[in-house]
Each structure stands twice: as C-alpha cells, then as structure tokens.
Amino acid sequence: MPFAAAGLGQQFLDSFTFMGNNTSHLLHDTLATIALSGAALGVALAVTLPFAVWLGHLHRGSGMAIRIANLGRALPELGLIAIFLAILGIGFLNVMVALVIVGIPPILANTFTAVDGVDPDVVDAARGMGMSELWIVFKIELPLALPLMFAGIRTSALFVIGASPLAAIAGGGGLGEIIVNQASYGFDGVLAAAIWVAALALLVQALLALLQRAITPEGLKAQARARGEKVVVGISDAERAMEATPSHA
Fold it and tell me: What CATH number did the domain enclosing 228 receive?
C-alpha cells in the first residue's frame, strides 16, 4: 500500500512536469474547451430562459418543468453524443448539441422555481400600480429571482464543463483529446488535462459568482443582510431546487 501511494504521488508530480513541458498545448486545448462549453451554455440559456421565466410567471407547468429537468439529468452524455453521431456526424456541432441538453435541466428547474416563488403580494402590488405583465417580469420577478436563477446557471456551467472532455470522442476537440489518449500522452498527461478541466470549472464558478453578486439589486442584498442570509446562492441550493416537489399542477 505505501508503494501504491508513493506511485500515485509521483504520477501527480509528473503531471505538473507535463504541464510545464506542454503549456502551449494545454492552453490551446483549454481555449477549445472554453469555446465549446461557452457555445453550449449560451444556446442552453437562449432556449431555456424565456420559456422557464414565462412558465414561472404564469405559475403553470411546474410538473412538466421538473420532469423535463429530471429527464435531462438522467440522460448519459456519451449516449447523447453517440445518438447525434448518426444525425450530425463527427465534429463541434454534434458535441455542442449534446452539451446543450446537459446544460438545460439546471437552468430550467432553477429559473422556473425562482420566478414561481416570488412573493405574490409584491406582484399583486405591481399590478395594482398598473404595470403590464411584461414589465412585472423584468422589473419585479427577474430581479427578485436572480440569485436562484444564477445558481442554476452556475450548476449548468459546471455540468457542461465537466462533460466537455467527452467531445474528443466525436472530434469536438478540447482537453478531452489528451484525457482519452493515454497511449500518446501517458498517465501524467491525462492527469494534467483532468486537473486543468477541474481548475477551469472552479474558475468559471468563481467568475459567475462574482457576476451574480455584481448584478444582484442592492435592495435585495440589504434585505438578505438584515435577515442574516447569504446573497450569492450556491450549487447545493441549485441542486435542492432541482429536486423540489412542484407546488402547482
């Protein structure tokens, strides 16, 4: 057992040697991973946010939203890529579509839950002041729902980046090309690329958390501080929201 531990420790150190010797290669593949993940997350947001926000505003379709979210979480990324190989062929588009499907469930569940959970008294007061439904969505519900919505986006980004190495199997490029090619890069290369994927995910999470804090309305921050609550909602909160039981039929 001590010899196995020593071997693993040495391989871990060797992975940093690989990073030093192949920094330009790793940076190039990291940029490809960022491009792929960013495109998938952007499409997932564009497709899901308007639909989820409007359903939450209407307080309808919660069962459907949660079922779609749970179905999306259950689908294996590798299986999706294999299915789209027959439709879209090998390349960037195939993998991006698969990652879009991976990224939709947290955005859908959290956005719906966040908007649906806005205090109805506040919404009724806005209607009483003559606000239109669209104005209520943008001026009342979205600002109040922002923390939990952003937690869903952060979870989605984590899922997408975590699944992105599978892109190499279908010619999508990125750090996965090193991870799936141990014969060429050795275990130290595989481990180095895996560490870079993990570091990229953590960096993106930190940047999104800072962005979330920056765009959260000051009034909401003040209320949260007064109640002793946190303003930036975390990944664990997003997971709980995705598993929540629908409150409306």
Answer: 1.10.3720.10
The answer to whether residue 6 is domain-embedded is no
Residue numbers of the domain that contains 139? 26-242
pLDDT tens for residues 170-190?
A: 777 788 889 888 888 888 899
Residue 122 counted as domain residue: yes
Which residue type does 169 have? I
Q: In this predicted structure, what is the pLDDT of residue 237?
A: 60
Question: If you ran DSSP here, which 8-state letter would residue 169 be given?
Answer: G
User: Is 90 a member of any domain?
Assistant: yes
Q: What are the CA-CA distances from residue 98 to residues 39, 72, 189, 194 (Å)?
A: 12, 11, 26, 20
| Among 104, 236, 244, 239, CA closest to 163 | 104
Amino acid at position 129, single letter: M
> How many domains is the chain built from?
1
183: its two tokens: 């014969």
CA distance 247 to 48: 20
Is 192 part of any domain? Answer: yes
For 41, counting Cβ atoms within 10 Å of its Cβ (0-12 exposed, 13-18 middle, 19+ buried), the class is: buried
* Window from 6-20, 34-48, 89-103 with minimum mean pLDDT: 6-20
pLDDT above 80 (res 192)? yes
Mean pLDDT of 194-220: 87
